[in-house]
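User: Some background: our group keeps a shared notebook of sequences we're curious about, and every so often someone picks one and asks for a predicted structure to add to the entry. Today it's my turn. The entry only has the sequence so far, pasted here. Could you supply the structure so I can complete it?
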Amino acid sequence: MIVLKLPNQTVKIDKGELVSYNANTVEYIHQKGDPGWRNADTEMFPVIGPTAEANFTVWTPKGDAIQDQHGLLRELTYTLVEADDTTAIFQKKYLANTKITNSKYPDKSIVSELYWPYDFQFQKKYELTNNGLEITFIITAEEGMPFMLGYHPAFKTESKFTKLSTENITIHVEEIQAVGSRAYSLTDVTSAQLQNPNPLTIETQGFKHLMLWTEVDTMLCIEPITFYPYDVTQDKLSQGYSYMGKLPVEYKVFLKPTHL
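Assistant: Of course. Here's the predicted structure to add to the notebook entry:
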């Protein structure tokens, strides 16, 4: 367990997963073991969304790849690169066409192994600041590699009457629940505020949209994404790709408690 600290703020990271963000004695992260979801956060890469109806196959310029829902990155293990009192960097590396055991097989999937036809390196950097927590994702891969990226953190909520506000809309948790597994889409939204008794602002950089999901009243997943996968059928999922340039790319998420 890696612990980052500043006055009135504490972050706990377990093998790369954000399992606690406490500010002024308020816990903002959904706790593993509580109803709603078995995790606290994860990443969706190199694809977002379901692939079952496309026989778990997605197109790439180097040929088809086998991917389960939300990609294969979550099947890899983070290693710690470096850490100090306020910063921690974790990393995953993947070698092209390496077959990765699918943890959803056989109970929730018919494919036992996943693979992707490109090398990549994926870093996750946590930095605790006086304004809150900054999370940076750094992708390094060959020029032209296609990808989608989504960050999937879960936040504690108080009840079905909890609201999420953006510049143009306010959504209640019960409205998000009504959408079901497809998730509630907020197009071209890069900032939102979770309206708990202790509000939390989520700001993003590089991501294009937000996707919202929950099945319970006490948790809300607020997911920055580069592409909303339900805008297309599963066999057309590749329409949502971004493509690597010559340099690594960075995406950021900022968690800012209103009262610090």
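Suggested note for the entry: The chain has a mean pLDDT of 95. The chain has one domain: 2-254.
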